[in-house]
Amino acid sequence: MAQSVRRQGAEEQHQLPVRTLVSASIGNAVEWFDWTVYATFLVYFSGQFFPSENEALSLIGTTSTYALAFFFRPLGGVVIGRFADLRGRKAGMLLTILLMAGGSLMIAVLPTYAAVGWLAPALLLVARIAQGLSLGGEVSGASAYLAEIAPPERRGRYSAFFYISTGSALLLASLLGVLLTAVLDEAQLESYGWRIAFAVGGLLGFVGLWLRRSLVESESFEENAEKARATTNPLLRTIKEHPRSVLQLCAFTLLSTLSYYTFFSALTPFAVNFRDADGNDVFIALSIGTALFIALCYPYGALSDRIGRKPVLLAWSAATAVLVVPLSYLVRDSLPSLIVVFCVGLGLYAAMASLAPAIMSELFPTELRATGIGAWYNTTVAIFGGTAPLVITALSSRGMPTVFFWYVAGAAVVAFLGILTLPETRGTDLR
Questions:
Q1: 53-92 b/e (C-beta count within 10 Å ≥ 16 → b)
Q2: What is the mean pLDDT of the chain?
Q3: What is the Cβ-side half-sphere exposure of residue 408, based on CA atoms within 13 angstroms?
Q4: Overall average pLDDT of the 66-93 stretch
Q5: Is pLDDT of 327 > 60?
Q6: Is 42 exposed, middle or buried (0-12, 13-18, 19+ CB in 10 A)?
Q7: Looking at the chain, which terminus has fewer C-beta neighbours within 10 angstroms, N or C?
């Protein structure tokens, strides 16, 4: 498919295969909707799965479950990534969406701690493990697919659809939060309102499954399938043969994942619980910031096709290093201040998000691509992204909330240095 698109592009004006891009990305949207609903609504359902007498303990227990599930992402990235390298990107993406939708529906109907005791958090953890495995494989499979079907000179534009879909799903999750917090009181949200969000995510999964069934396998995979089957110890090979790529991936993913979980997840409970912000105001500000994020992804992707990946990524990491701490002081019980925080933070993050599938796919050859991305991207996300809500909650409860934002600023410096070592890959063929 990619080669035929390139040949056509040489003869006539290129037309984006919008249906293919949407079909590939819609599953990713469902994945991130389900994943984000947990982080967004955990402040309301934490007392349902842990002893409600101790609010702080319940919140820590729920965020710990959130963090523990992240450590299954690398396993999902390796296992499902290898499956996608052997059986195809389409097969891998169908598997991941089934796991995610099943986990979301399971959470929607789980019994509470009051009903079954400690079996409730145990079952919650099982559902989250399924979602962790799923998301670990989803990122690598969808990223590889979008990069492989793209013409070299338009890979940034194709890549942007990955997070356009993600942002759309996050906006839907945020708007659902606005709706539920507007029509339900706190007692209703804690009793059953949060279950509605998980049920919606599960049902969306079947929509994504239906759309993905029509995807055509990428030519890049088909041409390298035999090489992938002949590859032994693929994870070890990524380290031995591509150590520089592994380190570069980890460096910029460190800031990427902290940016994502700071602005899309961790700030919501932080603002409500520790800065006394109104929950509805937070969801409104998050929705506005997310809409801006979606609007900026494609222009950033197109810009990277014109001027290169490195200038865009260097500007993103440098600006984040300078601005993230000042932004933290604007998190307060004020809708205009919250809008500024989310718009600046997510406007910056869109620069990285729009390029993520392209830049990650350009680091590894086709036979190792899904395994390499799945393993090292998800390991970095597990260590730093999965613990972000727990870290910000723990620091805030000790009266040191700004320390977390200095932590993000430090990660931005690491990412900047790592990006400096990247080769410029704009317009190059995938290996």
A1: eeeeebbbbbbbbbbbbbbbbbbbbbbbbbbbbbbbbbeb
A2: 85
A3: 32
A4: 85
A5: yes
A6: buried
A7: C
Q: In Å, how far are 325, 326, 394, 397, 408 from 403, measured between CA atoms? A: 9, 12, 11, 12, 9
Q: CA–CA separation, 58 vs 45, rounded Å?
A: 9
- Residue in the structure block whose two tokens are 């919250």: 338
Give the whole-angstrom CA distance, residue 332 versus residue 341.
Answer: 10
> Distance (Å, rounded) from C-alpha 339 to C-alpha 149?
37
Query: Which amino acid appears at position 184 of this protein?
Result: L
Q: What secondary structure letter does DSSP report for 194?
A: H
Confirm if 366 and 226 have CB atoms less than 8 A apart.
Answer: no
pLDDT band for position 54 (cuts 50, 70, 90): low
Q: If we measure between CA atoms, which residue out of 70, 49, 350, 40 comes closest to residue 200?
A: 40
229-232 contact pairs (CB < 8 A, 24+): 229/86, 231/85, 231/367, 231/368
For residues 122 and 241, give the distance between their C-alpha atoms in angstroms, rounded to a whole number.
40
Burial class (CB in 10 A: 0-12, 13-18, 19+), 278: middle
pTM, 2 dp: 0.81
Q: What is the pLDDT of residues 156-207, one digit of tens each?
A: 998 898 888 888 887 888 778 778 878 888 788 888 888 998 899 888 888 8
Q: Which of 266-270, 276-280, 303-307, 330-334 has the highest mean pLDDT?
A: 303-307
